[in-house]
Amino acid sequence: MPDTRVTLNRILSCNQAGGCSEVPLRWDIRYAPHHGAPTFDAAISPSELMQPAVDPPVKSLHIVSSLVLATWTITVTNPSGVMVQDVLVNIHATLQKPIIHDEWDNLSAEQHTSIQRIFYDWCYTSKDYGCTYSSGVRRIDCLLSTTVFSGLVTDVP
Questions:
Q1: Higher-confidence position of 43 and 143
Q2: Could you tell me which residue ranges the DUF6699 domain spans (predicted)?
Q3: CA distances (Å), 55 to each of 64, 89, 92, 148, in order?
Q4: Secondary structure of 127-152 in the HEC alphabet?
Q5: C-alpha span between 6 and 103 (Å, rounded)
Q6: Which sign, positive or negative, has the C-alpha torsion 132, 150, 37, 10?
């Protein structure tokens, strides 16, 4: 039987023993990945972003999070092998999509209020209130204040 264990790249990996509090990349996922602020002294280089996301390299990677709806699939593909940058770009892109009416309708009134508060705060702090407002509520707004990347863990034995 082939060995199916994979190891996450250190930039993406959550140190579970540390409660995922220390990841090499401190990134507010509301912003494009190039805005990531590393938690260590040196910046993450472009060459590190082009490293394989996992070892051994894979062409497709499915990311699951209890913070997002199951319908918000994050599947990262790259025929040359999924890179760290591919993962970050796909997480960001998935969460920038507007929520659809069915998703909104399935949320409680309390969730609506919390999400609207986050949405309006985001509009007021953006460079272009009108543009941000007209783009509507995005998936990222549904995460409320949980917007700092905490790393990934594998579920493959």
A1: 143
A2: 25-153
A3: 19, 19, 23, 25
A4: CCHHHHHHHCCEHHHHHCCCCECCCE
A5: 33
A6: negative
Q: How far apart are CA 25 and CA 20, in angstroms?
A: 11
Shared-domain flag, residues 33 and 68: yes
104 with 29, same domain: the answer is no
Instruction: Break the chain down into helix, strand, coil percent, rounded to 5.
Output: 35, 15, 50
Structure tokens at 153: 């863990």
Least confident of 6-15, 16-25, 135-144: 16-25
Q: Three-state DSSP class for 29?
A: coil
In degrees and rounded to multiples of 5, residue 62 shows phi and psi of: -105, 125
What local confidence, expressed as pLDDT, does residue 27 receive? 78
Distance between CA atoms of 91 and 149, rounded to whole angstroms?
A: 10
